[in-house]
Design a protein that fits this description.
The chain has 387 residues and is of the alpha+beta class. It folds into three domains: 105 residues, Orthogonal Bundle (Butyryl-Coa Dehydrogenase, subunit A, domain 1), CATH 1.10.540.10; 117 residues, Butyryl-CoA Dehydrogenase, subunit A, domain 2; 143 residues, Butyryl-CoA Dehydrogenase, subunit A, domain 3, CATH 1.20.140.10. The protein has 13 helices and ten strands. A four-stranded mixed β-sheet has the order 1-4-5-8. The longest helix is centred in the middle third of the chain and has 37 residues. It is globular. Bound molecules: flavin-adenine dinucleotide.
Length: 387
């Protein structure tokens, strides 16, 4: 294993590593082949309390900061596993914690902390809106003590494995709102009641095992008590949670990069070609060293963004930059690792091709690289807006 330049939360990391050792490559390969959900792994993480680290102690969690959540996810990814099946259970509750009523917090957070309720579906993206979230059209019309929801969502991960979903929808049409970002609201949808009663879930098969889906709403009735915060202000509530999501996903990228660097270094030391280890050639060494340099730099950016978040400081730019550099570092490391392994980089049993496919996602989701660059260009560098 490559030497770590930082060792935050050593006890948490050690415990996560031990847990992950029970779920080796063969476990993830079998699931990947069938596109199945890692139920046993998620149950073990839940039981060990790793998915409730960010929930305050008064609601049954560990009350730790974002850095602790980042350490958990980084170690899962470094071990060769994937946190994508359940990372949202850690942070989706943030919208209830920050904007829910006292009654909603009491009703949901202790059960999310214990794992009795899975709150890990986050319904924002729509096929016709893309990254321009203000163009979403899924609409919740008030009808007495219910909202009646119609529309569709795409790429909603873990919807089939969630009891609750945070849904962003319009309660005022874009054309009638004072600003494009006004008029959107957050509903906490009970999936157990919704499916078959106005909500249809259709799985979307992708290049990685991510349990992602398409959702169709046809006059789904949702009680008004499910509204989080004030109607019309949902976009702002969602943005808060996105910073946490970007920082945690950046930590997963750091874990992926470490996985690739560990594997490539070990292979380069052992594999003999032309009568010597391939790692003796600088043409093989330097890409591994470069991957380590990039990962280390990105890791510091992730820590910086996480400390700002923990201190309650504005961190939108830093969270975005952390996600950008970490996703690029993990992708560079993935490509390097395949190259270092030659033909074996393509063999399923090495887990490298699987992790290569998995880490590619993070330059597109939860936000694509171009949109981050656009944010930095216009919000930090004061360049003219292009859209
Ligand atoms: C496996 C997977 C899981 C996901 N899970 C979820 C989930 O659980 N919940 C959820 O709500 N969403 C989810 N998403 C959606 C994800 O957040 C989006 O795919 C992502 O934000 C990119 O949006 P888009 O696909 O609509 O791309 P588009 O907005 O259509 O953009 C396509 C490309 O064009 C570029 N582009 C667009 N506009 C501009 C511009 N003005 N300037 C420069 N470049 C531009 C983008 O950078 C991108 O590369 C998931 C996606 C995937 C693939």
């Amino acid at each position: 294993m490559a030497k770590d330049t930082d060792q935050t939360f050593p006890e948490i990391r050690e415990a996560v590593r031990k847990l992950c050792a029970r779920f080796p490559g063969a476990y993830w390969r079998a699931l990947d082949r069938e596109r199945e959900y890692p139920t046993e792994f998620v149950a073990a993480l839940t039981e060990a309390g790793f998915l409730s680290v960010l929930i305050p102690e008064e609601y049954g969690g560990s009350g730790l900061g974002l850095g602790a959540g980042a350490a958990v996810l980084e170690e899962i990814h470094r071990s060769g596993g994937n946190g994508g099946a359940c990372h949202a259970q850690m942070y989706t509750m943030g919208v209830v914690l920050r904007h829910g009523s006292p009654a909603q917090k009491e009703a949901y957070l202790p059960k999310v902390a214990s794992g009795e309720l899975r709150l890990q579906a986050f319904g924002v993206t729509e096929p016709d809106a893309g990254t321009d979230t203000t163009r979403i059209t899924t609409f919740a019309r008030r009808d007495g003590d219910h909202y009646v929801v119609s529309g569709k969502k795409l790429w909603i991960s873990r919807a089939e494995h969630s009891d609750l979903m945070v849904l962003l929808c319009r309660t005022t049409a874009r054309a009638d709102a004072a600003k494009p970002s006004d008029g959107m609201s957050v509903l906490l949808v009970d999936m157990r009641e919704a499916v078959g009663n106005g909500l249809t879930i259709r799985p979307v098969r992708t290049m990685l095992n991510h349990a992602t889906t398409e959702l169709f709403f046809e006059d789904l009735r949702v009680p008004v008590e499910s509204l989080i915060g004030e109607a019309g202000k949902g976009f702002r509530y969602i943005l808060d949670g996105m910073n946490a999501e970007r920082i945690l996903i950046a930590a997963e990228c750091i874990g992926d990069a470490k996985f690739f660097i560990d594997r490539a270094s070990a292979y380069a030391r052992e594999r003999q070609v032309f009568g010597r280890p391939i790692g003796e050639n600088q043409g093989v060494q330097f890409p591994i060293a470069r991957a380590f340099v990039q990962m280390t730099a990105a890791s510091h950016m992730v820590d910086h963004a996480a400390s700002l978040f923990e201190a309650g400081q504005p961190c939108g730019t830093e969270a975005n930059m952390a996600k950008l550099v970490a996703s690029e570092a993990s992708w560079y490391a993935a490509d390097m690792c395949v190259q270092t392994h030659g033909g074996f980089g393509f063999a399923e049993e090495y887990d490298i091709e699987r992790k290569f496919r998995e880490t590619r996602l993070y330059q597109v989701a939860p936000i694509s690289t171009n949109l981050i660059l656009s944010h930095v260009a216009t919000h930090v560098l004061d360049l003219p807006k292009s859209f």
